[in-house]
Specification:
Blueprint (H helix, E strand, L loop, with lengths): L9 H15 L4 H8 L3 H9 L8 H9 L3 H5 L14 E3 L2 E5 L10 E7 L18 E8 L1 E6 L2 E6 L3 E5 L4 E5 L4 E7 L1 H8 L2
Antiparallel strand pairs: 1-2, 2-3, 3-9, 4-7, 4-9, 5-6, 5-8
Helix pairs in contact: 1-4, 2-3, 2-4
Length: 194
Amino acid sequence: MTDTATDEPVDVRVRRRLRELRSEQGLTLQQIAERARIDVSTLSRLESGKRRLALDHIPALAAALGVRADDLLGTPPPQDPRVRSKPRRYDGMTMWPLSHRSSAGGLHAYKVHISAKRRTPPDVETLHVHEGHDWIYVLTGRLRLILGADELIVKAAETVEFSTWTPHWFGAVDGPVEAIMIFGPHGERVHLHA
């Protein structure tokens, strides 16, 4: 059965919306199953498409999620494209998220202010190493970048990209630095101590 509003079959849409709403609310299958008074294995099979979704499931699932049945049946409202995450402050840096967190395992962009006081790198033995790549575009100021045994001064309008398997650190040279940085999930955990 296909809805004329979209080419997505209704049962596929309900399964997708069920997963999306459950994920958005940070709820487990067990929590939804208890609230809907459905066996957790049944709910898992309903969500994955291994069991046929019946109309009588929809009100119980909607109630368990705290939404209307239309929220499961209809298309989701368009996502607000504005990024409204609060800045994070850590070790002489303030980082404003420029991308949504929805893409699990994906890259995330930040506008970063590096204080002029962040000038002294840690001991060589404690430089960060992690899986992935970092990308940095300097907007203003001069960035001091240590990559293994090398030290680079990156000026405004310059970009660096490097493997983060190389021990690294970045800070200011002689004043504050503004930059755009792109991190993978491993870099985010290290640089933001999330």
